[in-house]
Amino acid sequence: MKKELLDKLTSKDAVIGIVGLGYVGLPLMLRYNEVGFRVLGFDIDQTKVEALMQGQSYIEHIPAAAIANARAGGFEATADFARASEADALIICVPTPLNKYREPDLSFVLDTTDSLVPHLRRGQIVSLESTTYPGTTDEELLPRIQSRGMKVGEDIFLVYSPEREDPGNPDFTTRTIPKVCGGITEACQEAGLALYGGVIDRVVPVSSTRAAEMTKLLENIHRAVNIGLVNEMKIVADKMGIDIHEVIRAAATKPFGFVPYHPGPGLGGHCIPIDPFYLTWKAREYGLHTRFIELAGEVNSAMPDWVVSKIANALNERKKSINGSRVLVLGIAYKKNVDDMRESPSVHIMERLRALGADVAYSDPHVPQFPKMREHHFDLASIALTPESIAQYDCVVLATDHDRFDYASIQASAQLVVDSRGKYLSILPNVVKA
Question: Which of 225, 223, 263, 267 minimizes the C-alpha distance to 244?
């Protein structure tokens, strides 16, 4: 079975199944299609399937032309998981959020696996890319797959290879970002390296699926902890009347021993605000309390409240209250130059302002209409920025520093700007750093 699979992957005769066609799955589909594999995409969202089949894209940084080219190259999208038997490789790229208790919600991974299992066959490889806690692949996926009566490592192959997509980053592509891969057995590992080796410039083998799962968590915990540190430093510097952004720029001139991290209004994206708590939860099983990780999470989670307090103080100094004030939030994507709204701190700021009685609006060139979200609800569309429209608001909050904003015009037109991204370097009478 292994030789037959390896031959198919090497010759590009294998059919690649991508399960979950979002920010991770769609670029991966394009890469496999680009090098000549036939790709079959699976998603439970029928509207996504229909859009892809019509050559349309629903992710801003992925052009429709790329989808149309993939369709011409044989790509198909479907919501019919029974077609999983057609694929030689099944790569699972579905969300792994937290529940309201900050505990892992594996329902997407497990429901997806349960939908695939009845249609698995000998000679396939299954790869999980969703970020999760160490042990998920061998504790949850392995027994489900073996329930089909197939032996993993002989009849069918199972690996974990964490996604490393960075939406909107022009410096790295799916091809150029090294890929970590760990298999349940040596044969699984060999199949995993063949699966990714034909499309990724560098594949990094590790000794087990658990090591691969922990690798992804370490990457994101490293960022979360350092961002938590610099966010706390920002609060201390603010109390001392020091511009933390000036300090960071100065510290970054040291050619060794310092890596600049930048404070902001909170953490966003599907990884950094969520992944550390997957390890925190799993560590409890071993009687461990991950104090460092949880402290960073507390600091980062408090940043939207910090920004709102700065807004309240700034308005108060101008003899206004939040209640009844018109507040315009600039940027509601979680980071600059993308349309990705996942875990955006901007939305938490908007909710807190609304709860305090503010009349909230937003402007974001990448998000023309506030999308439907599971936990956040605003019936709003992006405001066009003109000197006249900006001047109508009591406060303009810079939450996401998109390059397409005209910062000079915003500052010149606004009554008050609360800058949570350190975009304004000089001291200006109507700008408050947050």
Answer: 263
